[in-house]
Write a structure and sequence with these properties.
By secondary structure, the protein is of the alpha/beta class. It is built from eleven helices and nine strands. A five-stranded parallel beta sheet has the order 7-6-5-8-9.
Length: 314
């Protein structure tokens, strides 16, 4: 298996700057891995002899486990570094960590960090291919890729679709990566949320801004709900969880403004009853939230495969 167009020279740090053929090639490869995963015929020798290190400075069971499973299905040796128990918490700098990682001679490094730009800094200092698994409020490229793959599987493509991204856009790296990917691939993107949770001048990214769910959801093909990131918020951005759900939580009444076959998505973890009603999250007629998790493994397999082969040929 292979991908005709590598996503970057050596790393995957952001969706911003990627071109449609690069994105499409990654999605095509991920689709093939999704089919292989379902058939149980994954090529488990693809990354044999390669070492993958998951370096997570922020908790994320879903993303870390997904990368771990992706690496193991391709035959890589996978190491999960417990940062909370490492020397990083004892005062070691990020550059010291980079020197340590270089000494380990790993091939692939998956990094999640609370500071925007941390994976990019490591990418300049380590020999391994670096994959950004989420940095601050900057980007989360593999989440956008798995979201795009999920939509494409149901709609056949991305061009010409109208997609709403709803909720805490201000703090969401998922929203940023999706905006870059979807607009690049020809989708029409709307962001919906209270004024306090919509970044100023976000319309410069080519999106339409709505503060009313009914108006914003009208005629949309897919509805992407975002987690309310209260741990990143200053007080006063939202009045209360109950009030937030009343105006911006996705329930059946609000979803009725979208297309009858609209997809409902969420990157997880969900705050049920805050940004989405359980009845909508679990509705098999609309919800593709579980499929997003499945596609996450396939997308990360594709990314690991492409970057490992690029490193071998570099």
């Amino acid at each position: 298996m292979g991908c005709r167009v590598p996503p970057t020279d050596r790393h995957l740090l952001a969706i911003e700057g990627m071109h449609p053929p690069q994105i499409a090639a990654l999605l095509d490869l991920a689709e093939s891995y999704a089919l292989l995963n379902r058939s149980g015929k994954t090529p488990r020798d693809r990354l044999r002899g390669r070492t993958l290190i998951n370096l997570f400075f922020e908790d994320s069971t879903r993303t870390r486990t997904s990368f771990e499973l992706a690496g193991k299905r391709l035959g890589a040796d996978v190491i999960n570094m417990q940062v909370s128990a490492s020397s990083v918490n004892k005062g070691e700098t990020l550059l010291d960590t980079a020197a340590t990682l270089n000494a380990m001679n790993c091939d692939l490094l998956v990094v999640r960090h609370a500071a925007s730009g941390a994976p990019a800094l490591l990418a300049r200092k380590v020999e391994a291919a670096v994959i950004n698994a989420g940095d601050g409020t900057h980007e989360h490229p593999t989440q956008a890729l798995l979201d795009a793959l999920t939509i494409r599987r149901h709609r056949g493509g991305l061009e010409g679709l109208t997609i709403a991204i709803c909720g805490d856009v201000l703090h969401s790296r998922v929203a940023r990566s999706n905006i870059f990917l979807l607009t690049t691939m020809g989708s029409r993107v709307r962001v919906i949320g209270p004024p306090t949770l919509i970044p100023s001048q976000i319309d410069r990214l080519g999106v339409e801004v709505f503060h009313d769910m009914a108006a914003g959801l009208r005629g949309t093909d897919a509805v992407m709900m975002l987690r309310l990131q209260q741990e990143r918020m200053a007080r006063g951005l939202v009045p209360s969880a109950r009030e937030y759900f009343r105006f911006y939580g996705l329930d059946a009444e609000k979803l009725a403004h979208a297309r009858p076959d609209a997809l409902v998505m969420h990157p997880g973890p969900m705050n049920r009853g805050v940004e989405i009603a359980s009845a909508v999250a679990d509705d098999p007629r609309h919800s593709v939230i579980r499929e997003q998790v499945e596609m996450g493994v396939a997308v990360r397999m594709a990314v690991l495969d492409v970057l490992a082969q690029a490193g071998a040929n570099g």
